[in-house]
Amino acid sequence: MRISLHGTGDGLRVRMRLDVNRRRWLAVQIILGVLLAVALFTGLWATFAPHSFYTSFPGFGMRWVQPDGPYNHHLTGDVGAFFLALGAVTAAALWFLDSLLARVAGLAWLVFGVPHLIYHAFHKPEAMGGVSFTLSLLSVLLLPALGAALILVAPRERTRVPEPNDLTFRFPRRGKSARGLGNRPPR
After folding, report:
1. Are 105 and 90 within 8 A, CB to CB?
2. How deeply is 145 buried, as exposed, middle or buried, from its count of CB atoms within 10 A (0-12, 13-18, 19+)?
3. Is the pTM higher than 0.90?
4. What confidence tens digit (pLDDT) does each residue in 147-179 have?
5. Residues 124-147: pLDDT tens digits?
6. Distance CA 140, CA 80 (A)
7. 99-122 and 73-96 helices, crossing angle to 10°
8. C-alpha span between 110 and 154 (Å, rounded)
C-alpha cells in the first residue's frame, strides 16, 4: 500500500493506493494489446485482401504463406475470419479487463498456437530461406507463449480491486472568532 499526503490549503488530503497486483494487471493489458494487434493485422488483411495476404504476408519483403502451397481463396478468407474471432475474444478481455476473460483468451491463443507452431516447425517450405524460416518460427512461437503467459499472469481476482477514495481532513480556518477578536491574544 502506498500512502501520500497533500496539503490543500485548508486541510490535508490522504491518498491510499492498494496496488493489488498492479504489475500483473499491466502485464495482462500489454499482452492482450499485442495479441489484439496481431489478430487485427492478420485477420483484416486475410479477410479483405486474401490474395495479397497469400502473396506477401507478413510484408517487409518476406513471403511466408506463398511458399507453403497453392492459393486457396476460401482457406485464406477462413484464416482471416479465425484471426478476427480470436481478436474479438481478446478485445472483450481487454475491454472488460476481467482476469477470467483474459485466461479464456490466453487459452484460445494457446489452443491455436501450439498446433500452428508444430506444423511450421516440421514443415519448412523449400522455397523459404533460413532467415525467413527462423523469423516465421519465432513469430508463431510468440502466439502460444503469450497465450500461456495470460493464463499464468492473470491475477486471481476477476477485476481490479478498487482503490479507496481519498480522505480529506479540513482544519478550522484561522480568522475572526465569533466575538470578533480574531485568533491573536490581546496585547
Report:
1. yes
2. middle
3. no
4. 999 999 998 887 766 677 887 888 887 665 555
5. 888 777 887 888 899 999 999 999
6. 16
7. 150
8. 15
